[in-house]
Amino acid sequence: MKEQPPSAVKKEFKNFFRQTWVEVDKSDFHFNLKKIKEYLKKDTKILAVIKSNGYGHGGVELAKEAVKAGVYGIGVCSIEEGIQFRKSGIETNLLVFGIPYPVDTLSVAIYWDLIPTLSNFHDIQYLSGLAKKLGKTLEFHLKIDTGMGRLGISPQDSYNILQKISEMPEIKLAGIYTHFAVADSDSSYTQNQLEIFHDITKYAKKLGLKFIAHVANTAALVNNKKTHLDMVRPGIGLYGLTPFDHAHKMLKLKPVLSWKTRIVNLKRVSAGFCVSYGRTFVTNRASVIATLPVGYADGYSRVLSNKADVLVRGKRCPIAGRITMDTMMIDVTGVKGVTIGDEVVLIGMQGKEKIKAEELAKLQNTINYEVTCSISMRVPRIVV
Ligand SMILES: Cc1ncc(COP(=O)(O)O)c(C=O)c1O
Question: What is the pLDDT of residues 3-34, one digit of tens each?
């Protein structure tokens, strides 16, 4: 007979025994979605951007919550992500943002009922051939590069291509979209992108094409209601993170993710004690050093060595020495009652203290998006 796991192992962890985990608060996710909805006109659709494992929060669970909230669809980055959602029973519209390369991957997307984004005429022709072969109308969204310089057909080419699309009844142009480069910081450049987009969609309408027009990421939808069009595509806002400093105040969103671990070892040491590789931290007094089972292989950046704080018993404690692959140390000197097994917050709240993804982002000279996306797959995501 198999042995029962010891009771100390949380039942939610299933096969995870290392005490490092992410908690995702689904009620906060619904709260953010509702706040965004309230900010839009009644008939504006929402494509919830739950790509890249839901910005590191855990894609499948949040995609299910978004479906419950009645979104029009979900934006994913790849065919693989779309397949993962379909296999998890998600039946809503799934728009793949990534370019279908090689082009024959389009047949895989179609098999799984994913809506591809097409960014060149070659791929449009391929889809048309596929539609004729299968004998059914195949949907796609067309992306226009109005100034992001990433994916999409150029505005110059778009008129000619739209004309050709209007003569291809076997494929359905379900949507036209573009992506802003500086919606968080430059309203005149964004306005210019919007005008280019409007000219193109006006032409498409003249050709008799019927489609959903969408352009707004979180920053655009917060900053400029004229970008809402038929549908918006919020990502970062759904997770309660901010695309720019004051966005949070405008929509009052709640961070959905907390990242936690536990103290697994404690050392009482005297002054002059060295901690971790490189001996970059040396105690200057009698100290208490705690070891945490989390490191850069979990996505906690090594750049944060000797820089960031964590929370223990509601108090900020600094990281001591270099973060290693699977472990790091913190200085818990003076934390009353500190003991092995204490919960430690890397991102989130504890008592009255809070560590935001934005704080860690600043310390490592990056953006909050990267902080949560970097939390590695070996860290279990628990929906609470
Ligand atoms: C095409 C597209 N639309 C929308 C979004 C959502 O952007 P944000 O997370 O800033 O709201 C992204 C994110 O990168 C994107 O790539």
Answer: 554 444 455 556 678 899 999 999 999 999 99
Q: Is 277 a catalytic residue?
A: yes
How much is the average pLDDT of 266-273?
98
For the chain, give every domain's residue range. 26-244, 257-383
- The string of pLDDT tens digits covering residues 326-345 is 999 999 999 999 999 999 99
Question: Out of 101, 111, 267, 277, which one is annotated catalytic?
Answer: 277
pLDDT value at residue 249: 67
Order of strands across the sheet that contains 287-292:
265-269, 287-292, 328-331
Which CATH code of 3.20.20.10, 3.30.450.20, 3.10.580.10, 3.30.450.40 fits the domain covering 26-244? Answer: 3.20.20.10
CA 182 / ligand 1 centre spacing (Å): 12
User: Is 243 touching ligand 1 by the criterion CB < 6 Å?
Assistant: yes
Whole-structure pTM over 0.70, yes or no?
yes
From the candidates 51, 143, 260, 356, which is the catalytic residue? 51
* CA nearest ligand 1 atom 2, residue: 179
CB atoms within 10 A of CB 277: 12
Q: Which two tokens stand for residue 292?
A: 């945490």
* CA dihedral for 176, 58, 237, 31, sign (positive or negative): positive
CATH of region 257-383, choose from 2.40.37.10, 2.60.120.260, 3.40.50.300, 1.10.510.10: 2.40.37.10
With a 6 A CB cut-off, is 368 part of the ligand 1 pocket? no
